[in-house]
Amino acid sequence: MSDKIKIAAVVGPTAGGKTALAIELAKRLDGEIICCDSMQIYERMMIGSAAPTEEEKQGIPHHLFGFVPIEKNFSAADYVPLARQKIEEITARGKLPILCGGTGLYLESLLYQSDYSPSVDPEIREDLNKKDGDELYEMLKELDPESAVSIHKNNKKRVVRALEITIGTGRKKSEWDALTRVKEPLYDARVAVLSYRGRETLYDRINRRVDLMLEAGLLDEVKSIDFPEGSTAGEAIGYKELRGYLNGEATLEEASEDIKQATRRYAKRQITWFKREKNALLLYVEDYDSSEDIVNKVLNYLTS
After folding, report:
1. What percentage of residues in the chain have a pLDDT greater than 90?
2. Segment holding 140, helix H or strand E
3. Which of 199, 209, 243 is nearest to 225 (CA)?
4. CA 58, 70, 273, 148: dihedral to nearest 10 degrees?
5. In whole angstroms, how far apart are CA 51 and each of 36, 74, 237?
6. Which of helix, strand or coil describes residue 291?
7. pTM of the entire predicted model
8. Where are the beta strands (DSSP E) in 78-230?
9. Using a CB cutoff of 8 Å and minimum separation of 24, what contacts does 153-162 make?
10. What is the CA radius of gyration of the chain?
11. C-alpha 130, offset from chain centre
């Protein structure tokens, strides 16, 4: 029997049904849910991040949702120690920690990094954020070519993080990753990946979700938030496109289509990421007659 802390995780592409599944599992297994989503951690971004409402939570305790100020750039390095603390607290109460979300980097860092990348002088990050994306990526290719290969040049947040570690510590981020990565998960983790076998089915769900978000008041939510220049939150899908509309850069219809397209692309990347997770239970929704069948399948997996 493993002496590691037991945790469960429900992950997968956006609009796949993770939230409902995680809540149902928490009800049946006496669990509490921990956010594993890089946008749902932000405050005031309820609609656009599809964060669970109080009604949807059904009384189940939820942790690390909507607590990060809009102006703060929040990374996996910030997330990991907070999630570890919540896992310890939930376990101490005799409950099952259940991670839920779509950010693969958060999950991977939590499971496999024994001591995640160090904190560095915030002034370094501030100076780097003043530079444009192309300049930053050229710096990364020169200073840490291995990290440059694994990070897309348009992902400014991750490029800046790699550079600030390299500059601030004198050691490449890729070297820190190699030093701290462990071969086996730090937890007794059971990971369920909820997805769709047919891309068109998932894409239809995404398109409908965007329409519902707009009907629910996403535009008003965007109007109500004063995003600081260069903030990670302001670049989130849905918020970025609608800010463009408000600035006169697109019509509302064009912004809506841009949100749908960006979300579909993001879902495709999520599917690719989560398929790499070793020993995970991969569930295709179309293979089951009902949501209850999916719940029972995951329950058997978690309790076996």
Report:
1. 72
2. helix 133-143
3. 243
4. -170
5. 11, 17, 14
6. helix
7. 0.82
8. 96-101, 188-195
9. 157/73, 157/75, 157/232, 157/235, 159/133, 160/125, 160/128, 160/129, 160/136, 161/75, 161/77, 161/117
10. 19
11. 25
Which residue's structure tokens are 């009907």?
215
CATH architecture for the domain at 122-180: Orthogonal Bundle (1.10)
* Mean pLDDT for the stretch of residues 210-232: 95
Please compute the mean of the pLDDT values over residues 197-209 and round it to a whole number.
95
Tell whether the model's pLDDT for residue 1 goes beyond 70. Answer: no
The CATH H-level (homologous superfamily) assignment of domain 6-114+182-303 is: P-loop containing nucleotide triphosphate hydrolases (3.40.50.300)
H-run or E-run covering 82: helix 76-92
**pLDDT 10s digits, 71-128:** 998 888 899 999 999 999 999 999 999 999 999 989 998 998 766 666 778 889 889 9
- The token duo for 186 is 């730090």
Domain boundaries, the chain: 6-114+182-303, 122-180
Give backbone dihedrals phi and psi of 193, rounded to 5 degrees, phi first: -105, 115
